[in-house]
Each structure stands twice: as C-alpha cells, then as structure tokens.
Amino acid sequence: MAIFGADPEQLASLGRTLRQQMGTIESVMGTVSAGLAGTAWTGPARDRFEHDWNETFRTALSRLVQAFDAAGSDCLARSSELQRVMGAG
C-alpha cells in the first residue's frame, strides 16, 4: 500500500517558485517582441520568424505561464490545507 502526501513547506516553496517563473517567461516574451519590433529586418525570413513567434512560440509561452500559475496556486492551496489539517496553520 502506497502512502501519499507532501511536506507542506516544500510544496509551498514549489508553488512560489512556479509563480515567480511566470515573470521570467513574461519578460522573455516582452524582450523578444520589443527586439523584433525594433529591428530593421524585412523579407521572407522575418515574415516566417514573426509568424512563428506570434502564432506558435508566444502562444506556447503564454500557455506555460497559465500552467505555472495554475500549478503554483494549486501547490500553495494544498500546502495551506495540509498545514490546516496537520494543525500547523
């Protein structure tokens, strides 16, 4: 029989780490978008990259931000609940 559980402090730490990384991902998105907008570059290669950036990469990074937000929030909520149940909260 397997025993399931988590260390509430470690779970909370993971939740905070995931939530903090959201800013890093958003920063990368902003840096690349601004760099692309400020670069004098025309032609099919730019068109391809800009399309890929806007349609694929930014979309994937946005989904990653959403996933980190949801997972981080879930870790924090579970940590709080564990602490409550264990009488530490």
Q: Structural class of the secondary elements? A: mainly alpha
Largest sheet: none
Order of helices and strands: HH
Give the count of helical stretches: 2
Structural topology:
Layout: H1 8-37, H2 44-85
Overview of this structure, please?
The structure is a single chain. With 89 residues, this protein is an all-alpha fold. It has a domain at 8-26 and 45-85. It is built from 2 helices and no strands. It has helices at 8-37, 44-85. Helix 1 (8-37) packs antiparallel against helix 2. It is elongated, with a radius of gyration of 19 Å. The two termini are 29 Å apart.
Features of the shown structure:
89 residues, mainly alpha, 0% strand
In short:
This protein is 81% helix and 0% strand. The relative contact order is 0.20. It is an all-alpha fold and 89 residues long.
